[in-house]
User: Fold CNH domain-containing protein from Aphanomyces astaci.
Amino acid sequence: MALHQSLVLEFPGRVECVVHYSMRVLVGTADGRLVLFDTRKDPNKPVGVHELPHKKRIQQILVVPHIRMVIVLANNTVTVHSATDLELVSSEFHLAKDVTHLSVNQRGPPHFRVCAASATKLQLFQFEAKEKRYKYLRELAIADPPEVVGWYRNKLIVGSRRGYALINDKTAEALSINLNVNTTPMVKLLPNEEIVVSAMDALGVFLLFTGEPVQRNSIAWTKAPVAIEYTSPYLVSMIPQKGIDVHSMQDGSLVQSIALPRITAMFGNGMKWDMEPRTGGDSEDVIVVAALTATGSTSIFKVEQMPMEQQVQELLDRGRIEEASDLMKKSISSLNADKQKSRMRRFHRQVAITLLKRCEFNAAVEFIYRSGMDPREWLSFFPDLVSPSFAYEPTILTPDVLPRGSSASPDWNSVLAALLKDNAGNLAPELVANGHAKLYTKSSKALLKCLEMIKKHSSRDRSSSREGMFATPPRSRSTSRESEFSAAHSSGGSFHRAPVLSRAAATVSSSFPKDIQRSEAVDTALLRLYIMHESMSEIAALLTTIDHQGEGAHCDLGSSQALLMHHHLYFELGLLFERHGRVLDALDVYARMGSGEYIQNPLEDSTSGAQAAVDLLLTVEDTSLVLYHSVRSSIHQPV
Assistant:
């Protein structure tokens, strides 16, 4: 639900027109009365009343609050009144005869020009600040009697039974718009110099002031509206014998209907002058409607947008991410940059949760990343991907936010089962058809992508020859190791193997505090995900990447060692030992590869094992250790 209604006042009689300005409500009656109420005071006690002598119905009221005036059309004549007490104000509108419609130029100050339309001409008036009155400006001849007029800058858009035309307000040059009306014409000016007009049977079409159509979905009404108002990002239409229809400007869809079958009038003020949409929380951005009651009185309602957070969440629940984003940006536009950033991060977190619940995992990844959410929030639902020492309880993805199904602890299999059972109606049919197993695979791949993004954000690759963190072209392990060693030393020696240098790296780490537990969780999970999805070439890159603080991967040693051994990834096991400063263990693995005891790739293992040992020994300062392992490596080095 986008809008909600609240009763402002009960009026004894039929209301033909209603407007709202500066916390005031002005009604025009069927018997020619103007009655003003101040909603800050007693809403049932008028603060001003003016009775027109002809006692004919009020046809239209224009509000120009900047000059504290209201312009009234009744009995086809125009009068000007003070906006605060309804006293008559002198003007030259008496020159306009048989007026059927009024329109104010949305360009606004300084002249606040008004068009008084009659069957054969458009008479233009402008406010003269020195005299504080409206004076006649000029008139334009027209071919067809207008029923509605809109005016912005130097263009008037005129709707008649025969169609719409754009008219230059100086030359009267007219440009016909090729639209089939077939109904009562209706015009509403919108932000970004757009116009919506009613066409054919009950269709809202968007145009530019050039007459060209806007690439936007049309609005489909159940019946031609008699009034259209704008409150960003919605169009609100008054439908006779029905009430109010609320459509999205984003895609033209019907968002909400409010039943008011005896509605008689509607007014909105969702734009400032020059057609700028009002920002969120603007007290002037309200819709006011009048509806007859069974007793013959009129109820005046204020129709306002729901609290922004509630609207945003409802849009997210319906999968309307872009529309929710536009609404959120509007609501925070008046905040300072820091507050805007904080609110958008919270919004991105909402989007991420919504997309996870809709099983749109790839889409969720971007918002998890942008929200700054701790990756362990989602990772904690995958116990097979974390180390035995992992201990993290989600503070965002809690059971009241993300259903856990039959499992008391975070478990993604249980979450998927609950979503497929209880939330299937909100899932795309093809996702439901995928079934549990495929959704789990998709989610694990999305998690991999998410962790890579987070890792990339906090790390830099030590090799200047690679374009990106995981962009290493396929090479043999021996060639790769040789290039990595050269790159490391050419970039200032940022890659260290020796234990003494590992201790130096630890000193760097203590100088730059870092959440090691989080890093270990991410790196350990990445290692397991690469193995799960058979992305073996990425494991070496993971284990040899240096981050901004001079640190490498923080994979859990015990569980990762067992996993690499189980999958016969001995070269990567050696890298893991190196990363943890266990040089002797790494040399032992490389020696076993060279001897053929550890077989990972029969075509390369003997060569790559020996080469890896040599590369590592070049970084070791213990001469006896270097000599011993050099001899051992040479024994197994093929001739």
